[in-house]
Every structure is written in structure tokens, then in C-alpha cells.
Amino acid sequence: MNPLLSVRNLFVRFGETLAVDDVSFDLPKGGALGIVGESGSGKSVTCRALMKLLPTTALAKGEINFDGQDILGASEATLNTLRGKRIAMIFQSPASHLDPLMRIGDQVAETLRKHTDLKGRAIHQEVLRLLDVVRIPEPERWAQAYPHQLSGGMKQRAMIAGALACKPDLLLADEPTTALDATVQKSVLDLLVDLRKSQGLSMIFVSHDLGAVARVCEDVIVMRKSRVVETGKTREVIDAPQHEYTQMLIASHPDRLTLHTPQPVPQATPLIEARGMQIRYGGGGLIDILTKRAGGFLAVKGADFTVQPGETLGIVGESGSGKSTMARALVGLVKPAAGEILFEGAPAKPLGRNRAAYLRDVQLVYQHPYEALSPRMRIRDAIAEPLRRHKLCPAQEVPARVADLMAQVDLDPTLGDRLPAQLSGGQCQRVAIARALAMDPRVLIADEVTSALDVTLQAQVMDLLIRLQKERGLTMIFISHDLAVIRRLCNSVIVMRRGEIVEAGPTGQVFDDPAQEYTRTLIDAIPRLEAAHP
Amino acid sequence: MKLSPMFVCGATLVAVWSLIALAAPLLATHDPYAIDFEALLAPPSADHWFGSDNVGRDTYSRVIYGSRLALYIGLLGVIAPMIIGMTIGLLAGYFGGWVDTIAMRVLDITVPFPFFVLVLSIVAVLGPGIENYFIALALVGWVGYARLARAEAIVLRSSEFVLAARTMGFSHPYILFRHVLPNAMSPVVVYMMTDVTLVILFGAALGFLGMGVSPPAAEWGVMIAEGQIYISSAWWISFFPGLAMVLIGVGFALMGDGLAKMLRIER
Known about the structure:
The structure holds 2 protein chains of 2 kinds. By secondary structure, chain A is of the alpha/beta class. Among the domains of chain A are: about 1-85 and about 170-255, P-loop containing nucleotide triphosphate hydrolases (Rossmann fold); about 95-165, no CATH class; about 360-440, no CATH class. In chain A, about 35% of the residues lie in helices and about 25% in strands. Chain A is built from 21 helices and 20 strands. The longest helix of chain A is centred in the middle third of the chain and has 18 residues, at about 180-200. Chain B is mainly alpha-helical. Chain B has one domain: MetI-like fold (Orthogonal Bundle), CATH 1.10.3720.10. Helix content of chain B is about 75%, strand content about 0%. Chain B has 10 helices and no strands. In chain B, α6 (about 130-155) packs antiparallel against α8 (about 170-210). Chain B is elongated and about 75 Å long. The mean pLDDT of chain B is about 90. Chains A and B meet through α14 and α15 of A and α7 and α8 of B.
């Protein structure tokens, strides 16, 4: 039988750089192929080339054959009869691909009107059916909603519904679940698996997450630096990776990392203690004062927790659960509306006049490696800044201290003269950590530090944090939406949901025997390599 | 940083004008104020390269000397508005709250009036002269800078590197000066370049209307005004100062556009 899609020796070139270097694969009818790789590996470009949706600066060579039709040689007119109709595509950020001023139902109807013969009432019926297929509850009601009224997962479903409108043969999914929370990600992946069965859909699934690909696809190709390094059955590739890079990729998957659980050090006074901490955003406006209400939005609704010296506390939760807000309150970026923070048993004042003294002990590292560094400040100066500003060491010793700090976070000393934009994400994150360490803190709060990084870098940064903790006896608060990362790093864990702590306890206990249903759903949603498609 | 060709063109033009202004006594063929009744309204010739005006003053020498006034007005005229605007804009954007509210309401009052109408009415009240033009510019011109600086500061104040500086325990003035200002600078510098052109043009317009530099000064606006009644018979009196103004304006505008490209941080 002829494959539905066959790609032979595909090259895509952007000026001097080769983005796709000799890629070939076949996709049988009804099959699903995963393309896995890190950022810049050429996986998305490959995916876009299949629909010839490349920028004009790109030069594509090779052969792409879709059901007997040559794609690269086809005219725009021919391509437009295929795009949307026989090959549909969904993207990473549904928000930017939905028209904000158009109702969900109308967006789906638009494709139907353009590509099918359906009219009037029939279109409406079909829209409702499609919304039902992608498991949007109460299709009648949600069809009337505008994109901003939908959650991220719902938007992605609506986009899938639009993609399915013309009953395509092939669905191209470019990182469709990357921007979603774990539980939502799981539900969208389940939906894709379901659609393959019920609609007989063929699929190409591009992702950096081998775990997500494993859930949906039986075949996988692994790309690195524009080339295919390994292809095969997903199951076999995961069980017995042949290429060195694939082995590293799998070894870096949070699922495969060895657990690291140092023994907690119970002591009489906890290092940090929060009592009934409430944080409110907004409020205090004229109307709030007149009606004597607090107003605004309660982001954290009364949190109590303690951090023992030397332990690593994990805070997990989905986006909007208030976990980052809580961290920011600990370093005085937001002011709690109620409650108190104790540091070594004494009230901590991260906002007061002497906040510099407190902040020397408690430091925060941010999520986005590029944004956390001043773009016009050289790396060396960025690391030296806290030393100079707070006179942490004599001026003539600053260069030596900076070199020492760079060595501690495994940064090449020659990088000192560069600007942040000239470094990779992982390197920037090391600089940010080095800067925090310059203050010689006792507590390091890491706010989603690994989320923006590729898995291999993620593993490296985690190793670094574990090593630093051992060497310096650091206490850490590690905030993440990624339970696999938390499990690897933390002694105890707090699970947050909608501003409340729903569960807290030692990591092992919470993961193996969660007391709350919500915690269980979170744990089940971790993309696992073991859950690979048979 | 790679030099953009646009910047090189603009900078060359501006550099040439600066040299002309500096070397005016060497370049001029006549005394710009010397009246010569032998050569009234003389057309361009070997003796008077750009011709002469109704009292026989050499247009070429007057255009050369006029570049001194133009650059003086253009460069000095943007300094006060920029400093005032940047300060107000950065403070308003960075701190927000009532500082922002007050600054923005003042700005709202200023914005609806056409820029030149406001400058003109302030000069009219204070009396003609360059000093009063500078005062008017400071009172009105800061608005553009303040808006730009405020927009940048609002984005920067919630950026992670500013938050990181906060969590390092640095003070607000230090963060504003060391982290916010350098990163808010580039659009302001670009705007300043176009503003120089505008200030030169409006300065000349005031001269033309008799409210800026007063005759007989060798100022391009004044020269254009003096030539306007002879425009059909002795076009050179107004034409050459006009051409000079275009060339200096294009120079600054190109420099601004080129700078905008160069100041962008590329990944």
C-alpha cells in the first residue's frame, strides 16, 4: 500500500543556515508519527514544509508526496485545495490563531462555509457536532463564546474542531500541548488519541516532549541540529535508543532521572515560616472604599507553611494557583494583605528599610533566562553588581569573586564579556543563579527555573542546583508546575490550587499516596515514557 | 554593532554641516552682514556663488553662517525637553500610582494643542527671541519624550531583570538609573534625532514670522522671509537657505532611522 505522505531528502535552507538537512520519512494512512527534538532542531520547519507554509526567505528542496500529489512543486492554487481541506494544522498557541472578535462557533463555521457545500442550518448542526467531537461541553453555549472567555485547553479544543471541520486526512500538530498545564495537556493528548481511532485521522505530532509523543504516536523520528538522528517505533526507541543523543534525551527525561532525596534536618525553629499569608491583587479603589469591601482578587487565600534549614520545599500547582505570587511575597515584591512571614522565628521585613540585610539571606531566581538579565549589561558586570552594590567584598577582590562564582555554576570564564543575548538559555540561567549566589544566601527560591529550558538543559540545571545545595548547605524553595521535576528535587511538597494549599507533606508520601483527588489527577497527568503507545 | 548604511549617510551629512558651521569664517567669501549697493539682487555668479539679496549681502556666506545658528538652535533646543520629558516619563512609568496620574493629566492637557500653535503663543507672550523659543520648547516639547519614556518604563518595571534587581535589595533610584534608563534610552535617542529637525524647522518658521531670531541675523528662516517678496525675480535669496534646511533635516532624520536599526538588540 502506498503511504499517505512520503518525504524524501527534504532540505530547507534559510540563507546560509540549513534548517532541515536531508529528512526522509513515510506516514501510512491512519498512522501517527512523532517528531521530537529540542528548540532549533528543525522539527517545526519540517512540519511547516509539509504544507509549504514556509517564509519566502526559505528554500526547500527534495520531494514531498501527499497521496500522489507533489507538494513542493505544486502551485498556490493547488495547495489551497489541500490546505485546511485535506491537511489541517494546529499550533502551539491557540490564542494567537483564533480571531479574538469572532465567536468560536463562527470560526469553525467559516472553514465549513469555504470548503464544503453545507448551507445555513446544516452548518450550525455540523459546528455543534464538531465541538462535541472535541469534547467541548454544552456545544450550544460555547459556540456563542468569544476566545477570551475560553481557557487555554478549551481554545486548543476549539482550534482542533476547526481543523477537523473538513474531515482532513492528515493533521499536523505543532507543539499543541506545550503551553498547557499538565492536566489539560493530558486531556488534549487523550483527545488526539481518540480522534485517531474514531476519525481515522493520520497525524504528525511535533513536540520537544518525548513523553507526550509517546502517548499519541507509534512511530517517532528524533531530530537534532537539522538532522534526523534516529527513527523507529516509539516503544523501541524509548526502550533501546541507538543514537547517543536519543539516549541522552531519554536519560534527561524527568521520568528517568534518579530521585534525589536528602534527609530532612528537623530543627526546633524553621528557617522560614508563613502564617495565614493572604495576598490580594487590585482592590482599594474608590468604589471598594465606598462599599467597604476589600475588592480586587485574592491570589493567595491564607497559606501556612514552614521550611526547615537544609531542606528543599517544592511548591506545585497549575498556572494561576498562586505559587509564584507566594514566592514573590517572600522576597518583598508583593505585600501580603494579611498574615506574617517569620525568618528564624523573628518577623521578616522584606519590604522595610533594612530589606537588603534580609534579602542577602533569601534570594530568588526567575523563570525566563533571557528576561532575568539586564539586556545591556555584560555578564561579568551582572554578577559583580550585587558584590559592588552591597560591598560584599573589597573592590579589588571583585574580579576574583566573579570568576569563582562563574566556575561554581560551570560557566566558561571567557563568556564574561558577552551580553545576555549572546548566550544560550541554559547559560543565562546559570548567570542568574551565579548572581543570586553572589549574595551568599541561605535560602534560594527557584521560580520555574527549568520550565523554559529544553529537557537536556533542564537536567543540567537541576544537577547544578543539587550540587550547590550539597556544597553550600542551601535551603531551597522550588516552584514548578512540573511534578516530575519536583519529585526529583524536593524533600517535601506543597500542592496549591486556586490560591489555597490543598495538600502538603513529604514528597514520597504525597506522590505515592496522595490524600486529595486533585493531587492524584496532577500526578496521573505527568507525561510518562512508560505510557508509550503499544 | 554594525553601522547601518542609513546611519552612515545621515551622520556624514550632519558631520559635513558641523564642519561648515565650525569653519564658517574660512568658507565664507564675504562678510555675511556687509551691505553692497553695487550688487543689489545679483544673480548667482563667480563673485556671488548663490547671488545676493536686496541690500547686496552675499547669500552664500549668509547660508554658511546660518548653519551655526541652525545647529545651535537644533541641538540646544532638544536638550531641555529631553531631560524634563525623560525624568517625568521614567518616574511616572516606573512608580505608577499618583505620580503617573498627575503627569499624565498634565500631558493630556498639552497634547490636544498643535505643537507649533502652543510654541507660537508662548513666544508671543514672552516676546520674540531664541531664549524665549527655548523656554517654549521646554514647556511643550517634553511631552513626546515623556510618553516614550513612560511606555518603556512601564514595560521595564515588571520585567524580570528589574524584579531581580529589586530582590537583590537595590534601591529605586539605583535601579532607575542603572537598569531602566539604559534600556529605555534607544527610542528616545531616535526620537531626539527627528526632534532636532523639527526644532530647526520651527526655529526657522519663527524667524520667518519675525518672532525668532531678529533681522539682520544670518538665519535661514529670516533669509527666506526677506526673499519672499522677490521670489519671482530673485529666487536665489529664499531657495538656498531652504535647500540648506532640507539637507540638514534629512541628515538628522536618516541618522535617527539608522540608529533605530542599530540600537535593536539582536539575538
